[in-house]
């Protein structure tokens, strides 16, 4: 019987995190991002990036978690990365103070497609929420591609809602729309509650 769990990433996980990221993007985003962009992503560069994120995080509140499926042997099957909301979490022309000091931003939350529907995404999110509460965060935000229905549905099932912010990423001269989702973090033992969206200007 398979057993799934979540733990903090270790430096030696960097290569597998990069591989999972590439494999997942090339499946999940094949209709969203240009094919040649996905084909030309550099796994070695991603590995170095993740090694730095694990070994030299900007703060103690910057975290990388991995999901593990353990059967006859253990497999890394997904990961989540998050940290205090910074400029990358802001919408275009949004003031730096718009999100506040108690907001955490999810930068990555991926489960390799062949390991999907086995609870790994939910475990990663639940473990992240526990750590965010420990760090004193009251709200979380995440950007999702407008065309990424799976991620949007998953976050919505956990109480996340669009907060009205949007942006378009310039990917090799192709504008790819994203929307920002948010959620108010629950107290210990309580389910996540949708955050109240700010009124549109």
Structure description:
Keywords: Acyltransferase, Transferase. GO terms for molecular function: acyltransferase activity, transferring groups other than amino-acyl groups. Residues 4-186 form the N-acetyltransferase domain. It is a single chain. This protein is α+β, with helices and mostly antiparallel strands. It has a single domain (3-194), classed as Gcn5-related N-acetyltransferase (GNAT) (Aminopeptidase, 3-Layer(aba) Sandwich), CATH 3.40.630.30. The chain is 28% helix and 32% strand. The chain has five helices and eight strands. The protein has helices at 14-28, 35-39, 43-55, 120-134, 149-157; strands at 3-8, 63-70, 74-84, 103-111, 139-145, 161-171, 174-184, 193-194. Strands 1, 2, 3, 4, 5, 6, 7 and 8 form an eight-stranded mixed β-sheet that branches. Helix 1 (14-28) packs across helix 3 (43-55). It is globular. Residues 193-201 have low confidence and may be disordered.
Q: What features would you highlight for this structure?
A:
201 residues, alpha+beta, Aminopeptidase, eight-stranded mixed beta sheet, 5 helices, 8 strands, 32% strand, globular, disordered C terminus, GNAT_dom, acyltransferase activity, transferring groups other than amino-acyl groups, acyltransferase, GNAT family N-acetyltransferase
